[in-house]
Amino acid sequence: MTPRLLIPGILNTPNIWGEVVERLRNHAEVRFARVDSQDSIEQLARDAWRELDDVSMHLPVFVGGFSLGGYVALAMLARLRRPISGVALISSTSARSISPAKQASHARAATLIEHDYAGFFDSVARTGTHPDYCAYPERVASLLSMMLQMGPGTAIRQNRAIAQRSERLALLA
């Protein structure tokens, strides 16, 4: 089966892809990149590539990145180790360089996380999520549980990695 590498978003475990995996289960081999221990987008991309090391170069590979995972997918494209047949960048991923205001926002988030991790992500889960999704309290609870499971250290590392991301517009031209 054709491999699909799915890269979770900020503070997401692979469980964020649950509904997607159900649809792909009979059509593709689904793999996940880990996003919980690295300090930069480049390190995340390096580790994501490792998830494909055992895949034949003759097989097509598709990559899907959600939010933070989209930045990782773009970094993978910047340092191709093998052909990629398709990339899906899902939700809030920009190939543009980060603005100073957004950098400052991620720095503030890291500080807030250090002081009140649970409170910060309760707010994010409720206000930073699409209203249609928030109409299902069990989904919000699941999302919040996933965020809390990742821990404050991961949250800080991921925010800092996003704040230092590189511009990747030329890859999409």
Structure summarized in a few sentences:
The chain is 49% helix and 12% strand.
Structure write-up:
This protein is α/β, with parallel strands linked by helices and 173 residues long. It folds into two domains: 2-96, Alpha/Beta hydrolase fold, catalytic domain (Rossmann fold, 3-Layer(aba) Sandwich), CATH 3.40.50.1820; 100-162. The protein is 49% helix and 12% strand. It has a four-stranded parallel sheet. Helix 1 links the parallel strand 1 (2-7) and strand 2.
Count of strand segments: 4
Kindly identify the CATH topology of the largest domain. Rossmann fold
**Helix content percent band:** 40-55%
Structural class: alpha/beta
Query: Helical element count?
Result: 8
Q: Roughly what is the average pLDDT, rounded to an integer?
A: 90
Q: How many structurally independent domains?
A: 2
Return the CATH architecture of the largest domain. Answer: 3-Layer(aba) Sandwich
Alpha carbon gyration radius: 16 Å
Principal-axis shape equals globular
CATH-assigned homologous superfamily of the largest domain: Alpha/Beta hydrolase fold, catalytic domain
Percent of residues in beta strands? 5-15%
Q: CA-to-CA gap between the ends?
A: 30 Å
